[in-house]
Amino acid sequence: MKVVLFCGGLGMRMRMGTPGDVPKPMQLVGPRPLLWHVMRYYAHFGHTEFILCLGHAPHHIKDFFVQYTETHSNDFRLRAGRVEMLSTDISDWQITFVDTGAESPIGERLRRVRKYLDGDEMFLANYADVLTDAPLPDMIDRFAGSDAAASMMVVPPTDSFHCIELGADGRASGITPVTEMPVWINGGYFVLRQEIFDHIPEGGDLVADGCAALAKTGGLLTYPYRGYWRPTDTVKERIALDEAYLRGDRPWAVWER
User: Fold this and answer.
1) Residue 191 β-bridge partners
2) 49 near 3, Cβ under 8 Å?
3) Position 200 confidence tier, pLDDT thresholds 50, 70, 90
4) Are the C-beta atoms of 61 and 7 separated by less than 8 Å?
5) Side-chain half-sphere of 121: how many Cα atoms within 13 Å?
6) To pair with 158 at 20 to 30 A between CA atoms, which of 47, 81, 228, 235?
7) 24: how many CB neighbours lie within 10 A of its CB?
8) Phi and psi (nearest 5°) for 139?
9) Strands 94-99 and 49-54
């Protein structure tokens, strides 16, 4: 299945401490950017046809893959001055780079790459900045066996906030961590059918327009997942992932198992 990745956002909450205008999906976790980790996850399950929806500072992403250096994250042998790769990352990947506009909403980015889906009835989509070890084949099979037009992985919130229960007189009657509330949030991993395009207007959003419209008619399937899932919306979250990688704690790297 083709994989559409939305990697054109500004990532404003990650600007502090970030040199230049590097897009959020190009922030490093270990020796490779977030985008590479997300793509490696899909490739592990056999999905190696990628469509990158570019926006902010697209040259960073284009240059990374055009000038890709396999030796940065693979074993190799140097013999008589020549490099012999013992393993490779992306030699079997097909990547389509599409400039979808610096200010375009996610839904509009998806609309602008529709022609590159080659009419495939089902395809995958992702924000390109969220890591997980979720069982992708199970997610796809569950969706394929339904009549839904879209599937969204949903996860419990990870924020450290607390919800306060208020009494009539304004006194608190209870405090509950938001992670323990019966609440699910968008996990960023989608399986979609072509029908999704019928519900995204020009300049529209994938979730607020497309998925919201389907939810009203029963056309949106969810895949609840309580396993490993980590967003990278802030510098703190990206640093935490990088530190976890360096100490060998990387559950999202399913390809290493």
Assistant:
1) 124, 151
2) yes
3) very high
4) yes
5) 5
6) 47
7) 25
8) -60, -45
9) parallel
Q: Please give the Cα distance from 178 to 158 (Å, whole number).
A: 8
Tell me if residue 223 falls in helix, strand or coil. strand
pLDDT above 80 for 70: yes
Task: Specify whether the backbone of 63 is left (phi greater than 0), alpha (psi in -120 to 50) or beta.
Answer: alpha
- Read out DSSP for 11-51? -GGG-TT--TT--GGGSEETTEEHHHHHHHHHHHTT--EEE
What are 73-130's pLDDT values in tens digits? 788 999 998 999 998 889 899 999 999 998 999 999 999 999 999 999 999 999 999 9
**Beta carbons within 8 Å of 18's beta carbon, 6+ residues apart:** 11, 27, 235
Whether residue 223 contacts residue 152, with contact meaning beta carbons closer than 8 Å, is answered with: yes
Q: What Rg do the C-alpha atoms of the chain give, in angstroms?
A: 20
Token code pair at residue 106 = 């996610």
CB 187, CB 155: distance < 8 Å: yes
Quick one: which of 189, 218, 224, 223 has its CA closest to 206? 189
CB 98 within 8 A of CB 111: no
DSSP H helices, the chain, are 34-44, 58-66, 106-112, 136-144, 212-217, 235-246
Is 51 in contact with 85 (CB distance < 8 Å)? no
pTM of the shown model: 0.90
Q: Residue 20: which pLDDT band, with cuts at 50, 70 and 90?
A: low
Distance of CA 114 to the CA centre of its chain: 18
